[in-house]
Amino acid sequence: MSTALASPSPADDRPLTGAAPSRWADVAAFIGGGLAAALGIAVAELIAGLAPGAPSLVIAIGDLVIENQPPGAKELIVELFGTNNKLALNVGIVLATLLVAGLLGVAGRRRWGIPVVGFVVAGAVGLVAALAQSLTDPLLALVTVVAAIGAALVALRMMLRATGPTWAGSAGRDPAAAAAAQMPEWDRRRFLQISGGVAVGSLVVGLVGRNLLDHRPGGAVEGATLPTAAGPVPEVPAAASLDVAGITPIVTPNESFYR
């Protein structure tokens, strides 16, 4: 067989065989993917809290899911979670995002391009959902998505480098030499340091962003009082209703009210 056939071509991007084979390295990569997504979500929440007109990507995607849910799904969710259905939906969206990101992290140990494409696609979905909201500023929506994806990918690459990925150390080498080189075992201590920092940063940034969103100007102000009506109308009797068969009462008890 000729040398030309035996040597890999420069364009060959197949995974290197010398990568750290540890199963725990894949577990670490899964955790790293989830943490990277958490950081991206937190950054988006912070921007939404700081800049009026910037979207909360979690809420935007939740609204998109609500608008496109199949028949009967709304009734099922309300039956399961009651008035906490919107919170349950948002939590479910976050958990699903972290799960998918974790799988992208595992794939990213072998090919870095896979999580890049995955995070970009997720960001595109978030952008479409954000632009569907009438109060969203398109430019701020784009900035939010780009910042979230950028923060997530930078954090993910740092964490994956500590897991001994197949692509680490191959830059600038001859492809044949890089393929034959034995990669070192993954650095547990370095991964824990980086992932711990990302986890704490995500928590702090996310909490600050959510607090800013909850107290955004124009919302309810604690301690504020409404002015007294110039001509108060009489209270509606509890049993008052419209003369239409089967319609609910005008006054609905709090425990029975749902919109």
Description of the structure:
The protein has 259 residues and is mostly helical. 59% of the residues lie in helices and 0% in strands. The chain has nine helices and no strands. Helix 7 packs antiparallel against helix 9 (188-214). The radius of gyration is 26 Å and the shape is elongated. The model is unreliable at 1-20 and 171-184 (pLDDT under 50).
Order of helices and strands: HHHHHHHHH
Structural class determined from secondary elements = mainly alpha
Measure the end-to-end span.
74 Å
The whole-angstrom Rg is 26 Å
Portion of residues in helices? Answer: 55-70%
Number of strands: 0
The biggest beta sheet is recorded as: none
Global outline: elongated
Unreliable spans are 1-20, 171-184
Mean pLDDT: 79
Number of DSSP helical runs: 9
What percentage of the residues does DSSP assign to strands (E)?
A: under 5%
